[in-house]
Amino acid sequence: MRQMLPNFRTALLLIGACLLALPATVHAQSAPATAAKERKEVVGVDPVRAEPLSQTIDVLGRLVARQNGMVAARVAERVAIVEVQVGDRVKRGDVLARLADDRLSSERLLRVASVEAARAAVARDRATLAKTRQTLERQDQLKGSTAYRKDRTEDAQRDVEIAQAALTRSQADATAATAQLELADIAVTDATVRAPYDGVVTIKHTTAGAYVRVGDPVVSLLNDSEIEIEADIPADRLAALPPGTTIEAEVQNGGHIFAAVRAIVPEENPRTRTRAVRFVLQVDNKVQNEIAANQSVVLHIPVGGTRDALTVSKDAIVRNGDREAVFVVIDGKAVYKTVALGESLGSRYEVLQGLSAGDVVVIRGNESLRSGQAVQPQS
């Protein structure tokens, strides 16, 4: 019995020590949970903005090149070689094709000979005229002497007139021969088909060995550095589009571009009551490389005056059934607020109720947020 008492006392001491250590263990285990509650969620934010808003209607337009068409042959001849392929980019004056010029060169030599013969005829007739005038002067000097004969003087006058007419005729022949030589030179030059403007070859209409007539297409060329927008705009909306007005548009890949009104064509379609309007693109080189002729584009045409409106990023909207809400960052916490939205404005919505200008809303990381949760905003 005496031996059991020390063992019993030892057990009581061990149990007491365990009970004393238990609160410290529980406190140590609850510390990570408290730290987890205090951890801030990193979120992306964006401010609510007050900006001018204009009402618009969407009109479908198309991108068109100001310079686009076929480059035609200017002489009838056999094609010697086509120097370009479809897709090649050329500069103004670059050679597109060469026509055979042996026949044209020979015709030019004939024109050169004709010019030389005409000039020789002019020189001959000019000498003949000088001789007849000299004869007439001699007859005039004999007046008052017994050697003077009136009929010879009259004959000399007629000879001068004939020589003058012959010289005039030969000079006209020389002018005609010179013009024919110039035409032959032009024909030889036109045997080399050159690009009339910078652009890209879109169609190759002929090949070496083929025969082309005057006006036959050789290649088609498109200047993709001068592309405009053409759209048929309702006539009753043209008052809001004076020349120089800048509008926003969307291309097929979803990109946004801006364009300014260049001209309104003064011809109305009687069936649709629309007029063609041309817009000059205002894009950088990167966007320029992404657009192409005949590509569709949606234009946002203004239909009324400009008014101020609050807008919020579309990424901030959280939908719960038929309700729309956002998380507003207030004092480092995400506060859930319902909002009333208006028109869609590109990547933003018009805010009718629930927010004020300058409010900071969560646009990234709002999928799993709870109202009142601590957040760390990042722009």
What would you note in describing this structure?
With 379 residues, the protein is an alpha+beta fold. Helix content is 32%, strand content 41%. The protein has helices spanning 4-38, 102-141, 150-190, 285-288; strands spanning 41-47, 49-65, 68-72, 77-82, 89-90, 95-99, 192-194, 199-204, 211-212, 217-222, 227-234, 246-251, 256-269, 274-282, 296-313, 318-320, 323-330, 333-338, 340-345, 348-353, 360-364, 373-378. Helix 2 (102-141) packs antiparallel against helix 3.
Q: How many helices?
A: 4
Biggest sheet record: 6 strands, mixed
- Outline: elongated
How much β-strand is present in the residues? 35-45%
The total of beta strands comes to: 22
Global mean pLDDT? 87
Integer-rounded radius of gyration: 46 Å
Helix and strand element order: HEEEEEEHHEEEEEEEEHEEEEEEEE
Determine the structural class based on helices, strands and strand pairing. Answer: alpha+beta
Strand order of the largest sheet: 16-17-18-22-1-21
Q: What brief labels describe this structure?
A:
22 strands; 4 helices; 379 residues; conserved putative lor/sdh protein from methanococcus maripaludis s2 fold; Elongation Factor Tu (Ef-tu), domain 3; elongated; six-stranded mixed beta sheet; six-stranded antiparallel barrel; alpha+beta; disordered N terminus; single chain
Topology:
Layout: H1 4-38, E1 41-47, E2 49-65, E3 68-72, E4 77-82, E5 89-90, E6 95-99, H2 102-141, H3 150-190, E7 192-194, E8 199-204, E9 211-212, E10 217-222, E11 227-234, E12 246-251, E13 256-269, E14 274-282, H4 285-288, E15 296-313, E16 318-320, E17 323-330, E18 333-338, E19 340-345, E20 348-353, E21 360-364, E22 373-378
Parallel strand pairs: 1-22
Antiparallel strand pairs: 1-21, 2-11, 2-15, 3-10, 4-6, 4-9, 5-8, 6-7, 8-10, 11-14, 12-13, 12-15, 13-14, 15-20, 16-17, 17-18, 18-22, 19-20
